[in-house]
TrEMBL record:
Domain PII-uridylyltransferase/Glutamine-synthetase adenylyltransferase: 331-469, 872-965
Gene: glnE
Family to which this protein belongs: Belongs to the GlnE family.
Keyword Protein biosynthesis (UniProt): no
Annotated protein name in UniProt: Bifunctional glutamine synthetase adenylyltransferase/adenylyl-removing enzyme
Physiological role: Involved in the regulation of glutamine synthetase GlnA, a key enzyme in the process to assimilate ammonia. When cellular nitrogen levels are high, the C-terminal adenylyl transferase (AT) inactivates GlnA by covalent transfer of an adenylyl group from ATP to specific tyrosine residue of GlnA, thus reducing its activity. Conversely, when nitrogen levels are low, the N-terminal adenylyl removase (AR) activates GlnA by removing the adenylyl group by phosphorolysis, increasing its activity.
Keywords annotated in UniProt: ATP-binding, Coiled coil, Ligase, Magnesium, Multifunctional enzyme, Nucleotide-binding, Nucleotidyltransferase, Transferase
BP terms from Gene Ontology: regulation of glutamine family amino acid metabolic process
Adenylyl removase as annotated region, ranges: 1-476
Range of residues in the leader sequence: none
Catalysed reactions, semicolon-separated: [glutamine synthetase]-O(4)-(5'-adenylyl)-L-tyrosine + phosphate = [glutamine synthetase]-L-tyrosine + ADP; [glutamine synthetase]-L-tyrosine + ATP = [glutamine synthetase]-O(4)-(5'-adenylyl)-L-tyrosine + diphosphate
Cofactor entry: Mg(2+)
A GO cellular component annotation in the UniProt record: cytosol
EC number: 2.7.7.89, 2.7.7.42
Source lineage: Bacteria, Pseudomonadati, Pseudomonadota, Gammaproteobacteria, Oceanospirillales
Length: 993
């Protein structure tokens, strides 16, 4: 029977496909005729309208689908009534939901009595659903794209797995019984983990499904004719489940099942208990198994227990540190694939060949393996989701993702087109012209040459992005070094020196040639390290990473401005990470990070010590944009909020560690920008102060939540219940209050609250309000000072609180104000000049500021004030000054130093504040000096000279911190600055009698 004239417009299909379409059309009509005859002979009622009565749009779609897909045509020949059912249910346009699929399959399995019936029902169900999936993929109704197709196939596989497993459990329960409940009394079922693209929810049209079977706890089945150990029961059940899907029958198969990703592969048990799986991955898990587990997801059986199992295995998959060793593993895996592709002549394979599907997956999964432990947003099975999150994490530019995602979609669309032809798992391009025409039509492309041109373009882009992430840095350096001078040292030269293959004299000559002034000392240091017990006892993987790194490191050392200094400062870092070899891999995989490391260590022994003490800070070297550009306060707060948000709220240890890593990392950024000269001194102190403020806000919130959970909320003074925001203040004094923190500054703090002192908290374990706030203060100090592997946050000094160490740890605002009015010494009012709220409740902060203004703005007898200030200054000089060597002076404590300027500013505020309230606004010396100038209280020239002196002195003190030198300056260098300070001091505070 020929194609009807009105079946489709003649120009909708390539002419070459029409003969094949006519043959399928003929077979369909013969099949329909046979169905009609059977119905007439058995007396069945025929449908009122057979499939020839499809709407015009459906008839056109039918022609397109039959022209492309032999699978669709063969299915309709065998089951000619299915098309009408699919059309009536809406399945030709819309993906059925998971619940709908489960209900449909349950209805078909309800009457199944034996395994043969189960197999037949599953296969027909799968074939009908696949007809709908292929139809939608080839016709693309609204909302259907490659991702929707992949999700639909995955959902179908999950429905078949769950439906088959449930039927098998019920069917064999009389014989084998049911597993004993877990220790907590909950039911115990098989856990089916989907791996690979099934786990990702991104199966292709004709894919294997990779599975791992597990069960929660050991025991014996109950209630059956035979009691089985759980291991045996779940093994038998797993075998039956595999056969239900994988066995080839007259109806074909449902899904090919691959169990080789389980522990020990085909040689291991089919099913493992949670404890045995956890022990295996902890003790024997290999890198490729980490890669495989990235996509693990519970897909059938006890889904909740599956999530629990993956939680236990997460530390194996995602390291807490940046694991650049994963790149080497992926590189090795790709090399194996490349060799196999070459051996089997599969270069045209769009999955495994160059620039293919697997390379896109490797790019994404490399970041998941390397960063997933830290950036928990990447702990997702879906490639699409993980890829979309890379730009926000600063791991791939948005423009790269904007290329990779559509290129991946094209490759997967091409893969689906190839597999739609015959429902066969293939990624190889067709040789037959007819199949090429079909694939071009499926992709809505003009012809096969157009497909190949687009494919080549995509592959080139994918390979470029793959190489940028996975390529061997040593090869890149060697390529970059081709333009070096002929007499320059190669990586092979450095490798020979490190491995001890050169005679001592030859090695020293080589080091001298590379710019080392003390070549003998440098060689001795390297030899000592290589022959050290630490190195000789390293495990093979760590030793190999060290051997791979050292030539690159020595090349970077030689390229630095001061090779001797750089080597001396970087080797302690290498020694510190010999047992944490992921950091060796990090440096080896990132030559640019090595360059930054040399620059920072060469400039600052303090930075070198920080990196050796806290190697996790090496992560910062990977992003130069942020390394030399500290974040402002709002971005700091956002970064800290995100970092803490990735950690369970009840994991205090992890929170403490995260706070410390955050602090060290951001202080390193400030120091790096300071050394690079990209930040003005004032900004350096600003950023160091911002870091402290953000951390104090976080610590206060953590401490408040902890106390409230235990004891409930305290009552306000008006008797109402306090809110979720801590009604508490952390007041910063000294350098913190004056916005002048340095690299090693401690924090001078005072704690204040304003709650009902007579009340108690409203929780299950109530305590008196003063006790609550005292414990809150103690908790804050603990969070700041507790020692973790990353050290402490800050040293804390509470001696500036009312009555010092003899006073209460936390005061009410009224008690604080009363103390300042009645009992505080002049030096305490001086300290109050540099006090400001750094964390806490906004309304309460306004109250504190009002008290501060009142106290500082009070009128004082000027001469008595002058005597008190001078007396205190002399006492400080006696204890702290006069210790510098000849020709030097102490930047802080000697006459003309920073403390003199601070006292000058404090005296000015206390003596003039009642007349000049503008002076009461600021707590930092620079703005106090600016206000003294703008209000005319001090001569402009004098204020300008004092500001210049203060900046110069502070800058020198900052530099001394970074270089680990004493905070001292040369008299000659600072003479004019000191003189300006001394003259101002004498004029204001020590006028001639």
């Amino acid at each position: 029977m020929p194609l009807p004239d009105d079946f489709l417009p003649a120009d909708e299909l390539p002419h070459a496909l029409l003969p094949a379409l006519e043959r399928v059309w003929q077979r369909l009509n013969e099949s329909l005729a046979r169905a009609d005859n059977v119905a007439e002979m058995t007396g069945q009622e025929l449908p009122s309208e057979n499939w020839l009565g499809l709407a015009p749009q459906r008839r056109s779609q039918l022609a397109r689908v039959m022209a492309i897909s032999d699978f669709a045509g063969d299915t309709l020949v065998r089951y000619p009534d299915w098309l009408q059912h699919l059309d009536a249910s809406g399945e030709l346009d819309v993906v059925p939901s998971a619940d709908t699929l489960a209900a449909w399959l349950a209805e078909r399995l309800e009457s199944v009595e034996d395994e043969a019936g189960l197999h037949a029902a599953l296969r027909r169900f799968r074939r009908a659903r696949m007809l709908g999936i292929v139809w939608r993929d080839l016709t693309r109704p609204p909302g259907i794209d490659m991702w929707a197709t992949a999700a639909a196939v995955s959902r179908l596989a999950e429905a078949c797995l769950e439906g088959a497993l449930g039927w098998l459990e019920r069917h064999f329960e009389p014989r084998w019984g049911r597993p004993a409940p877990r220790a907590d009394g909950s039911e115990q079922r098989l856990v089916v983990l989907g791996m690979g693209k099934l786990g990702a929810g991104e199966l292709n049209l004709s894919s294997d499904i990779d599975l791992i079977f597990a069960y929660p706890e050991k025991g014996d089945t109950e209630g059956g004719r035979t009691s089985l150990e759980h291991q045996e029961y779940f093994t038998k059940l797993g075998q039956k489940l595999i056969a239900a899907l994988d066995a080839v029958t007259a109806d074909g198969f449902a899904f090919r099942v691959d169990m080789r990703l389980r522990p020990l592969g085909d040689g291991g048990p089919l099913v493992g208990s949670f404890s045995s799986l956890a022990a295996y991955y902890q003790d024997q898990g290999r890198e490729w198994e980490r890669y495989a587990m990235l996509k693990a997801r519970p897909v059938a059986g006890d889904l909740g227990a599956g999530v629990e199992l993956l939680g236990h295995l997460r530390p194996f998959v995602y390291r807490k540190y940046l694991d650049f060793g994963a790149i080497e593993s992926l590189r090795e895996m790709k090399a194996l694939i490349n060799r196999e592709v070459k051996r089997r002549g599969m270069q045209a394979n769009i999955k495994l060949g160059p620039g293919g599907i697997r390379e896109v997956e490797f790019v994404v999964q490399a970041f998941q393996l390397i960063r997933g432990g830290r950036d928990t947003e990447l702990q997702v099975a879906s490639l699409r989701t993980a890829l979309s999150r890379l730009p926000a994490l600063g791991l791939l530019p948005q423009e790269v993702v904007d290329e990779l995602e559509p290129d991946y979609v094209f490759l997967r669309d091409l893969e689906h087109a190839l597999q739609a032809l015959e429902d066969r798992q293939t990624q190889s391009l067709p040789d037959e012209d007819l199949d090429r025409e079909r694939v071009a039509l499926a992709l809505n492309m003009e012809d096969w040459p157009a497909v190949m041109a687009r494919l080549e373009e995509v592959r080139v882009r994918v390979r470029q992005h793959f190489d940028a992430v996975i390529a061997d840095p040593e090869e890149e350096l060697e390529e970059a070094g081709e333009g070096r001078a002929e007499d320059s040292l190669s990586l092979n030269d450095w490798r020979s020196l490190w491995c001890g293959e050169l005679e001592s004299a030859e090695a020293q000559d080589m080091l001298s040639e590379a710019g080392f002034v003390q070549a003998e000392t440098a060689l001795r240091r390297l030899t000592t390290l290589r022959q050290s017990r630490q190195v000789q006892s390293m495990q093979r993987i760590g030793f190999d990473r060290l051997e791979a790194l050292m030539p690159l490191l020595l090349d970077a050392v030689a390229a630095s401005d001061t090779p001797d200094t750089a080597l001396e400062r970087v080797l302690p870092l290498i020694e510190a990470v010999l047992r944490r070899t992921a950091y060796l891999a990090l440096l080896r995989e990132n030559p640019e990070a090595l360059s930054h490391l040399m620059g920072l260590c060469g400039s600052s022994p303090w930075i070198a010590e920080q990196l050796a003490r806290y190697p996790i800070l090496l992560d910062e070297l990977l992003t130069p944009d942020t390394l030399y550009t500290p974040a402002d306060k709002s971005r700091l707060a956002d970064e800290l909020r995100q970092a803490l948000g990735r950690i369970p709220e009840d994991d205090e240890e992890a929170h403490l560690e995260a706070l410390r890593v955050f602090k060290h990392a951001h202080v390193l950024r400030v120091a790096a920008s300071d050394i690079a000269g990209t930040r003005h001194l004032m900004k350096v102190s600003d950023y160091l102060t911002y870091i402290a403020e953000v951390l104090l806000e976080a610590v206060l919130a953590m401490a408040w939540r902890h106390l409230v959970r235990k004891h409930g909320y305290p009552l306000r003074r008006d008797g109402s219940r306090a809110g979720a925001e801590p009604e508490f203040l952390i007041v910063g004094y000294g350098k913190l209050g004056g916005i002048e923190l340095g690299y090693g500054s401690d924090l001078d703090l005072v704690f204040i609250h304003d709650a009902d002192s007579q009340g108690e908290t409203d929780g299950a374990r109530p305590i008196d309000t003063p006790v609550f706030f005292t414990r809150l203060g103690q908790r804050i100090i603990h969070l700041l000072t507790a020692v973790t592997p990353a050290g402490t946050l800050y040293e804390v000094d509470m001696r500036l609180r009312p009555s010092g160490n003899a006073g209460l740890l936390v005061s009410t605002l009224d008690a604080f104000a009363d103390y300042q009015r009645r009992e505080a010494w002049t030096w305490e009012h001086q300290a109050l000049v540099r006090a400001r709220v750094v964390a806490g409740h906004a309304r309460l902060a306004q109250g504190f500021e009002a008290v501060r203004r009142e106290i500082l703005g009070g009128e004082r007898e000027r001469e008595a004030l002058r005597e008190e200030v001078v007396k205190m200054r002399r006492k400080m000089r006696e204890h702290l000054g006069g210790k510098a060597g000849e020709g030097e002076f102490d930047l802080k404590h000697d006459p003309g130093g920073m403390v003199d300027i601070e006292f000058l500013c404090q005296f000015a505020v206390l003596s003039m504040g009642h007349e000049t309230p503008e002076l009461l606004q600021w707590s930092d010396n620079m703005r106090i000096l600016e206000t003294l100038e703008s209000t005319g209280r001090l001569p402009a020239e004098e204020c300008q000279r004092l500001r210049e002196a203060y900046l110069a002195l502070r800058s020198a003190a900052h530099r001394a911190s970074l270089t680990r030198d004493a905070a001292r300056g040369r008299d000659a260098e600072f003479h004019s600055h000191r003189q300006a300070v001394i003259e101002a001091w004498q004029r204001l505070l020590e006028p001639p009698a």
